[in-house]
């Protein structure tokens, strides 16, 4: 409508027109508010989608950290087992060395006893009863020392490595 047409309208008509325009304006404002609410809801939905994606990434990081921790735990268990195995091998080698020393010591003692028994036999003869008793004593001593040395050697071979067993004749 032009300005002249508006001037020709009566007051009642102008009021009616103003009222209808006011209602139309209210309706449009209400529609704008509804559209704004929908837009806000979509923005929230988009934020939630972003939050869900971010949460998934965080969970992925948590699972990766848990996997890393599990891997470190398994590695520490393996290294502990290797360390204990090495310690046991070292102890076994030490015991084997000690046993070998004992065998050598026993063999030396046995050799000394045999040598002394041989010297006793080489001494000038004593009266028949004492000489026979000494000889028997020396023979028994030598025999016992020899058996003791063999037993010690066998025990050492059993507690040592396979090489020791071969040397002991087992």
Compact overview of the structure:
The protein has helices at 3-8, 11-122, 128-159, 162-168. The chain is mostly helical and 170 residues long. It is rod-shaped, with a radius of gyration of 55 Å.
Walkthrough of the structure:
The protein is mainly α. Helix content is 92%, strand content 0%. The protein has helices at 3-8, 11-122, 128-159, 162-168. It is rod-shaped, with a radius of gyration of 55 Å. It starts with a helix and ends with a helix.
- What is the tally of helical segments? 4
Query: What is the end-to-end distance?
Result: 128 Å
The SS-based structural class is: mainly alpha
What's the rounded overall pLDDT mean? 80
Number of E strands: 0
Rg, alpha carbons = 55 Å
What percent of residues are in strands?
under 5%
Parts with pLDDT < 50 across at least 5 consecutive residues: none
Principal-axis shape equals rod-shaped
**Main sheet properties:** none
The H-and-E topology, N to C, reads as: HHHH
Helical proportion? over 70%
